[in-house]
Amino acid sequence: MHLTWLDSNSWLVEIAQKRIAIDPWLVGVLSFGNQEWLFKGVRSQDRPIPESIDLILLSQGLEDHAHPPTLKRLDRNIPVVASASAAKVVQKLGYRHVYPLLKGETWKLDNHLEIRATQGTPLGPFTLENGYLIRDLHQGTSLYYEPHGNHDPQLKDLAPIDVAIAPIINLSIPAIGSIIQGPERALELAQQIRPQFLLPTAAGGDIRLEGLINVLLKAKGSAKALQAQLQQHHLPTQIIEPQPGERIELKLKQPAAP
């Protein structure tokens, strides 16, 4: 299994000889509803569009997960597995093969991979976004992704899972509370699914953040502190912090049984 972190929540996952782009933001500015005074993410430079993408996986419909300028640059024939809200975004952009998944539903790619939607982040009273469990149907290796720390309590029934991509830093706004839940939720996740490796997501990387929200954001936690907690709880999980654009190989032990 190879992983490349592309800043923020954007990843390229290579598993079962397939290349999956997760929540890609690769080009242009990131803002919400074009309100750049409120929040603006700026790249030092655009990232190259990865070649030979077999699948796009979108966890949420907001711009930091379903980024329209990036999605406009990708091939509309690439299949997209998405939350219900993200599916609407790519359908409006003209993607031809869109597969919305609700919690517990699965989708297979060429009988090589199974994508299972898990409970993700609630955005309002009527919108529940997705986490995902990706499983290599031949090798048995597995990867879990959820970008806000809202982990499905039923994940324990799918454990162990080899690799987890999840936030390890808590980001909060005064008077609103946590918008990304890191250290405590990451520890609970490791106790639930006992991954061999945990890779942090939702960090900035080569990105400059501007706007009112960025001024108000408060961060808490670190990889070093979480690794110490994992050791205190006798958990074997190793935290790996890749550099933006770095392609890393995860040498897994015996694949976890489903």
UniProtKB/TrEMBL annotation:
Q: Which Pfam families match?
A: Lactamase_B_3 (PF13483)
Matching SUPFAM superfamilies:
Metallo-hydrolase/oxidoreductase
In its UniProt entry, the species of origin is given as Desertifilum tharense IPPAS B-1220
A GO molecular function assigned to this protein is: hydrolase activity
Name by which UniProt lists this protein: Zn-dependent hydrolase
Q: Which UniProt keywords apply?
A: Hydrolase
- Gene3D superfamilies, sorted: Ribonuclease Z/Hydroxyacylglutathione hydrolase-like
- Entry superkingdom: Bacteria
